[in-house]
Amino acid sequence: ALASAGQPTASGSAMQTGSAPPIPEPTPTFPTDLSGALTIWTFAQGDDEVAIKAYMRAFKDRFPDVEPKLVVIPEDSYTAKINTSLQARNPPDIAIIEDMRWAKAGRVVELSPHLAEWGVDIADFNPGGIGRMALEADPAKGVYGMGDFLGGFVLVYNRKLFAEAALAYPPTDRSLTFREYDTICRALVKPGSDPAQTVYGCAAHDNAYGMVGQRVFGADGRTIVGNGDSPEMVDAFNVGTALIRDKVAPSGSVMDAIGGETDLFALGKIGITGTDFTEVAKYQANGIDFGIAPFYVIRAGDSVVDTFTAPWGTFTESRNQRAALEFIRFLATDAQRIRMTISLDPPLSAKVASETGYGKDDPIRQQYLEVLKLAQPQVFVPNGVEAWDPGEVVRRMTVERETDAAPILGPMVAKAQRELDSVWTAWEELGP
Predict the structure, then answer these.
(1) 313, 94 Cβ separation under 8 angstroms
(2) Can you tell me whether residue 95 is helix, strand or coil?
(3) For labelling, which of 9, 74, 158, 325 has a CA lying 20 to 30 Å from the CA of 119?
(4) Quick check: helix, strand or coil at residue 190?
(5) pLDDT, tens digit (0-9, with 9 covering 90-100), for 354-393
(6) What is the strand order of the sheet 36-43 is part of?
């Protein structure tokens, strides 16, 4: 019998009188003649490459005549190894696209037309993560890799310590400024004569000063003079390093002696700090009641969550490119769901995270997803600018106890500007 108007059909969907029936999702079709070796290169990731091995097994089940072969390379020699293979015109079939100069030079397959053919919409993926895989961080200029997960560097805060200090929790919909962070840190600290007994208000992070790239390199990624040494940047360094000098935040030597910031947070010894989301299992195991917030910034109105993923791609000279493209298709679809069964991180696809109820019964994961909505692509800067060194500024202002960042930053950014001009020239010479 036919369902009444407006009532569910056997498939569970309601059909309205006078309207066309819903169009079913097309069933994906896969080639049946794939075979041969599929070489996959990655760098050592500290987790025995659990995820990529799981994908290889699932891909092999779908395409039994394909033989995936994994090669794990030390991270510090990975880029050089890929460069050598490209020079020999014998690159792997699949690799993490660690250096976008390979794409700029036309050596990496542009995936945008393939994604469209597969029905994969880039808009379904977190824009911060997709920016890591796009030319000049702009998907409109071409997407050259596909990630399976979305990692993020966020703030975690100890709710118990906040309650004891009568502090409101940090917002989840915007970033704190350095000045706001400083106020919270100083309210949370519980000094002690022994560093091991001190409860530090926070950790002060070297990477905080460059977390919003345009505040260092300008909106176009080409101008560090006037940005990397701006009054706001000087003030941020002055505020951040004072936290260490005043023992509100642990120094590098203290952390070397008694544990890193994530270990101290897991012991209830830091009120607020930055973390990779995969560390949260340690905090939960130790019974820490904590929340998650975006990272802090030097300019009010900015918000940032530094996101990352593994941008897997294939090269134009890869030997088994048809199988390689099918593997990337697998990463863009099935692997998004598999990833959630083997790690804490959500999939890169925000659509899949929503459809599968990622974090449905876990308030921490829900809060993490909420914070990740702030992630956006960072301004693009070609590799090779080394003179900009926040760690050296922090060292001088904590170890040598200088108290004004301005005279340190001036010469540093002048040298960095020369490097920046040079790397942009080299980048543009690689291709259109």
Answers:
(1) yes
(2) strand
(3) 9
(4) strand
(5) 999 998 889 999 999 999 999 999 999 999 999 999 999 9
(6) 66-73, 36-43, 94-96, 312-313
> Residue 33 is which amino acid?
D
Question: How far apart (Å, rounded) are the C-alpha atoms in residues 41 and 71?
Answer: 5
Q: Which uninterrupted H or E stretch holds 292? A: strand 290-293
Q: Which residues of 217-228 are buried (b: 16+ CB within 10 A; e: fewer)?
A: bbeebbbbeebb
Phi first, then psi: give them for residue 42, nearest 5 degrees.
Answer: -145, 170
289-334 pLDDT per residue, tens: 999 999 999 999 999 999 999 999 999 999 999 999 999 999 999 9
SS (H, E, C) 96-131: ECCCCHHHHCCCECCCHHHHHHHCCCHHHECHHHHH
What b-and-e string marks burial along 33-53, b requiring 16 or more CB atoms within 10 Å of the CB? ebeeebbbbbbeeeeebebbe
Amino acid at residue number 209: Y
Looking at the DSSP assignment, which residues form a beta bridge with residue 67? 37
In this structure, the chain runs to a length of 432
Angle, helices 321-332/50-62, rounded to nearest 10 degrees: 110
Per-residue CA distances from 92 to 41, 72, 184, 343 (Å): 7, 12, 49, 26
Spatial separation of the C-alpha atoms in residues 164 and 162, rounded to whole Å: 5
Q: How far is CA 244 from CA 185, 254, 343, in A?
A: 11, 10, 34
